[in-house]
Amino acid sequence: MFEYHMNMAETVGFAIILLLLGRWIKRKVNFFEKFFIPAPVIGGTLFSIILLIGHQTGTFNLDTIKPADGEISIRDLLMIAFFTTVGFSASLKILKKAGRGVALFLLAATVLVILQDIVGPVLAKVLGINPLLGLAAGSIPLTGGHGTSGSLAPDLEKLGAAGATVVAFTSATYGLISGCLIGGPIARRLMIKNNLKPTESKAGFDSSLLNTESEVTEDSLFSAVIYISIAMGIGATVNILLNNFFVAHQIKIKFPAYLMGMVVAAIIRNILDYNHKKLPFNEIGIIGNISLSLFLSMALMSMKLWELIDLALPLIIILAVQTIVMALFAYYVTFNIMGRDYDAAVIATGHCGFGLGATPNAMANMETFTAANGPSIKAFFIIPIVGSLFIDFVNALVIQGFSWGIVTFM
Known about the structure:
Helices cover 73% and strands 2% of the residues. The protein is mainly α. Helix 4 (74-87) runs parallel beside helix 11 (259-274), helix 13 packs antiparallel against helix 14 (342-356) and helix 14 (342-356) crosses helix 16.
């Protein structure tokens, strides 16, 4: 068998090639555009299929050089950078100003996250596989998407869940498609059953909260790099101190590398908000998006699809149940919490795309539904704020709690 191990520079270069290839394929194939499949997922998955062929035929294998003990890879650095940028979005000031609707939907989304992380591990236990693999088919890939999958699933593998990364990425891709398929029928059923009509005049929100556009300059971009680097540096130090404390006191908790950077970023954001100072938020978002794209491309290009073979049937069952749970939750919980009106029905269809896929899928569900049935300013305000500013932060914290609980009690 021919084997080649790529160094750091080769890994970055190859990841960018796969990212560009994914963008080209996405432009050419309507299916990927329709279901908002990310370009790095397309390119990285295509390469992992090629690796599967090489593995099954015993002819070739390409891999990356593993970092020495105590060091982090370029992939992990990009992952930490991405989650640090997520932390900067956790503004309590915006949550308070955004109104009751945003808080209620964040509550609904958080309850769904918890429910997904109960359903996955419990079904995995029943089906005779590692409960951590059930967590890899829970809120990590579904509410979290591919970014959270690539970041958190490797931690599950370190805890003993072999194949967790492949399970998470597969589940995330499934979620992007299924979330779009079930959203419309659910909202239509709610509208017909309850005789709902558009209520645009009831929106009553300050749309300026969504307007964060500003000119990107070298100085503003460098300012964003400074904020991210400081949060990452302080977070890494705090992370090491806390983990050493836990080891010294025999406490079975280990924080992942990204968590404290995200928490420190959230603290910095809220201190600046309190003192009426602005962050270069667009620039932070740009750096976060670039970091995520490169990280996903690197993570997926090394995905070992052959590890999925023995897990295929349990995974199909878990994802089928998760889809039913999402549909029932949107129909009975999201709709009722959000007010049982037309706007609530639109939010319910958005939650299907959001809870199984990603915020773009939620927006696509709502755009399709409102184009045929009437506008909903309220829905188009609430979903992006929760999806882009809050849910990743909440989801990461919930997942850590469930990971610890599974390792300790299951």
